Amino acid sequence: MLIVPLHKPLNLATLPLVTMLLVMVNVLVFFGWQAGDDAKVAAAQGWYLQSELAGYELPAYEKHLRFTAQHERLAELEAMPAARRAGFVAMSTLSDVSFLAALEEGSLFESDAQRAAWSPLRQRYQAQLDEVFTLRHLLRSSEWSPWRMLSSAFLHGGVMHLFGNMLFLVALGLLLEGALGGWRFLGVYLLGAFGASVASLWWRWGDAGGGLGASGAVAALMGAFCVVWGRRPVRFFYWFGVVFDYVRAPAIWLLPLWLGWELYNLLFNRTAGIGFDAHAGGLVSGALMGAVLVLTRQTREDFMADERAPDAVDARWELAQQHMGRLENAAAERLLAELAGEQPRRMDIALARYRVAGNAGQRAVQQARGIAVLALDAGSAAELAAQRNVVKELLENGVTADAAAAVFERCLKAGWLQEAETALQSVTMLPAEEQAQRWLRLALGQGERSAVAGQQRLLQLILQQFPQTPQAGKARFLLENS
Predict the structure, then answer these.
(1) DSSP string covering 164-224
(2) How far, in Å, CA of 228 to CA of 250, rounded?
(3) Of 89-93, 260-264, 299-303, 340-344, where does the model show the most confidence?
(4) Is there a contact between 25 and 154 (Cβ–Cβ < 8 Å)?
(5) Model's pTM, two decimal places?
(6) Which one-letter DSSP state was computed for residue 252?
(7) Across the chain, what does the average pLDDT equal?
(8) Mean per-residue pLDDT for 212-231?
(9) Are 199 and 282 in contact (CB under 8 A)?
(10) Which of 33, 42, 74, 306 could join 316 via S-S bond, C-beta 3.0 to 4.6 A?
(11) Do the beta carbons of residue 413 and residue 382 sit within 8 Å?
């Protein structure tokens, strides 16, 4: 089962900065500090098998399994060929806290002399294991270590493990960080990681093994998201077997689905090697934190206001207008960017973004958005007039050559010949033949509107400024036959 909320577009206006920082940290840890850990573990275990240490610890491990009634693990060990048993012990005991404690106590050795011979070998082996970053920071079952309970949330067991967690982190962060703010979002992530570790320790206490990965913290974000967004309908993608689609439903409905899935697997799929216990603990802890934040009114209603009712777009549009009226440009742009991502052909949204950039003094951005306005199809006389006003403002404020070319094309198409000529005067860096071709098109446009004097003036201009171009010959022919 896969359920991912994909409700808002990811762009500069909605970019969740803390989420991106967490992604960068996780990626840095995996490709930086964790890089080479597999080779270090392999080297350490190679030494383990070649030294006399395995000869001491294999019988000690068998005794430990009997003492602790781990009958399944003991049967597994006894059933495998003798040549593989030492390697099995080396791998199985990497994070077996109770076995290491029993070794240190000496209760698993036949004599003090045997323990004395074992101790320096173990110290040398442990020194090699201590060089492995992952082993120093992963969560070990049956050990209460607040640092490991947090640091293990930044470790991953492979590229796909990392990719899956970061995908969910970005999808949830886009919606939850905007609703909570960066600091509160970070708090939910870190406390959620700790809560997931607490649940995992409670469920696995007495077992041998360890856990790592950001999935517990991400599960906490999932729980918090469900409660914070509550009954607001959100758009999400689901995939069950061969069935997949997008659907809108209240966010709170996802909580029992997610939690039920984790609990089901925890009870009936325990051999999958996945931390369903940590996932369930993260979901519950995140939901509780989300409830506290909602009850104490620490959520950003304006970020979620568009999802209160089916007319969400209108609500966001009206709110953006209010922000524009108060010159709250950043808040207005955030809402308008969301709307533009969902309805890229709406002229009023494009015009509003053009105005916001102008109000904010972002001239380059305003020019680019003005060109975007001109690229849209005007559906009414009012929209056509608005586009012409944008043209006039762009030309008055000065435009780049590329922008001037775009303005020229729109003006020529609409029949705004005066503005088209003004724009064409700004395009001087093109080859002479290309410039002449545009002037000829403008002259022909004058002729289509029976502006004979204007056409002749432009044809004369082509002859004077571009006499060596093919267009000059066409201009001479038109003048002679006019």
Answers:
(1) HHHHHHHHHHHHHHHHH-HHHHHHHHHHHHHHHHHHHHHHHTT---EE--THHHHHHHHHH
(2) 11
(3) 260-264
(4) yes
(5) 0.62
(6) G
(7) 87
(8) 95
(9) yes
(10) 306
(11) no
